[in-house]
């Protein structure tokens, strides 16, 4: 009986295996045969075209030999350089934004779908060579900042360093592109060799409040002595925005709590899109504290016998990527150092007391005729000196004996009185 049961189990297992094999033959094999019978051809006329600053148009066509009946056709695209990216599309063209100063290359192939199965063609490749230019002549350390202005426009400010191999006569020129708009800089700052190293756009076509839109910066140059290599860089407009300072910051004491309130910065984003840092300095102890908050007020228990300085700054938080922190708000003060005030008052009282004491002593000395004893007058000299300039001149007679003449010349000269009119 046991042997019969085992035999039946074995037969049942074999039947299940046979059914599985039969299902595979009926369902899978026709599709496999069909796939093997269909040939997938790669796209043709694959080209790369620079359509704008840092923008490439990838275009291709379906092979005329490709069978299309009852098939779904898509295309697999791989960007190889400058940054790897892969995606698929039903279109026969695609736009890519990428820096091009180091070149650009991509693959594309045909994808064929039928009844849940996918077939692929071989890859075809296209390439853009890097633009010409001598090594180390392109700009370096490019950085840009945008700012939302009170006139509801966006300004742009960029700085860079000349390439180490750039000749002294190099002239750099900056362009920016936002979506389809492109503009050249007209306001440059120069270095000591008269090379442009900084650019300002007081007003741009950058739309405030957009999320993750790209700003393309392109800098090329010219020189009599070398070909200047161009340089491009892409910036997320939210990541390079210098956020405005929080507005209407106020501080006050509520019992032993310091309370600060403010309004969101000037921006198109709602108030829920910002985070804040609160900077508190205890001017008595020198202790400093920076606290982060996502609300528009701040409360902190403090020592009311101390004086504090308070500042606030802002940045993007939830609505967009973080930009540059705003400048700190103007310094506000609250509280008073009672110990310091006591010292000041003590010094003031001591000074007044000292002055009063000196005055009283001087009055007392004067009233008791002690002033002359303490400071006696200077005595006049007993011997009177002859006046070197008398008012009356004695009349003198000029005689030969009083003159410095030789003895032979003095004889025969009469003595005569000297009159007043001589003097």
Describe the structure.
The chain is α+β, with helices and mostly antiparallel strands. Among the domains are: 44-128, Immunoglobulins (Immunoglobulin-like), CATH 2.60.40; 140-239, Immunoglobulin-like (Sandwich); 245-334, Immunoglobulins (Immunoglobulin-like, Sandwich). 17% of the residues lie in helices and 38% in strands. It is built from 4 helices and 25 strands. The protein has helices at 2-37, 338-367, 371-374, 407-410, and strands spanning 44-52, 55-61, 72-81, 85-89, 93-97, 104-114, 117-120, 124-128, 140-148, 154-161, 171-178, 181-184, 188-190, 196-201, 214-222, 231-236, 247-254, 257-263, 274-282, 288-293, 297-301, 307-316, 332-335, 397-398, 416-417. Strands 3, 4, 6, 7 and 8 form a 5-stranded antiparallel β-sheet that branches. It has a 4-stranded antiparallel β-sheet with strand order 9-10-14-13, with no helix packed on it. β6 and β7 form a beta hairpin. The longest helix is centred in the N-terminal third of the chain and has 36 residues, at 2-37. Mean pLDDT is 82; it is low at 1-5, 26-35 and 388-423.
Topology:
Blueprint: H1 2-37, E1 44-52, E2 55-61, E3 72-81, E4 85-89, E5 93-97, E6 104-114, E7 117-120, E8 124-128, E9 140-148, E10 154-161, E11 171-178, E12 181-184, E13 188-190, E14 196-201, E15 214-222, E16 231-236, E17 247-254, E18 257-263, E19 274-282, E20 288-293, E21 297-301, E22 307-316, E23 332-335, H2 338-367, H3 371-374, E24 397-398, H4 407-410, E25 416-417
Antiparallel strand pairs: 1-2, 2-5, 3-4, 3-6, 6-7, 6-8, 9-10, 10-14, 11-12, 11-15, 13-14, 15-16, 17-18, 18-21, 19-20, 19-22, 22-23, 24-25
